[in-house]
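User: Need the bound-state model for adenosine-5'-diphosphate:
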Amino acid sequence: MRTVIYPGSFDPLTNGHLDVIQRAGKLFDRVIVAVAQNESKNPLFTLAERLEMVSKCVGHLPNVETDAFDGLLVNYVEQRGAQAIVRGLRAVSDFEFEFQLALMNRKLNERIETIFMMPKDTYTFLSSRIVKEIARLGGDVSSFVPGQVREALVGRLGRKE
Ligand code: ADP
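Assistant: Bound-state model below.
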């Protein structure tokens, strides 16, 4: 059983994240989307809200699970019996940080591999941060996030399109 962990804040989940989840699901027997607590990032949605959004949006994918994690990622990966971590790479700008993170995780536990996946080109400009900004300004985010996430964003940020 090959298991991969897809960690992130998912504040909120976007179609870019979903694209990576679907691609990983074709390569691995099981994908665990691990939603990080990340209080230091001051998330718009609570951990419980982010978990609920992710699990609703991946409900149709039979080999994808959702979980919460806190603490050191490599410890969580071992604890879940996974072999790898998947991260998304959108542009060169993601590379430096992701490269550092992957090599540090390898230093901490050399049995765990990090793999990178590129989303469909139309999602390479998408980030949770930019989606929140558009929603906050009253823009239409329906082509960037799943329907449930759009509703949650409109509800939280208080503007109707
Ligand atoms: P983090 O706080 O860990 O960066 P994010 O939720 O922002 O969490 O992102 C989780 C992972 O998904 C990261 O590897 C990030 O590069 C990737 N990612 C974010 N947006 C996209 C996208 N539009 N396409 C592909 N990968 C993405």
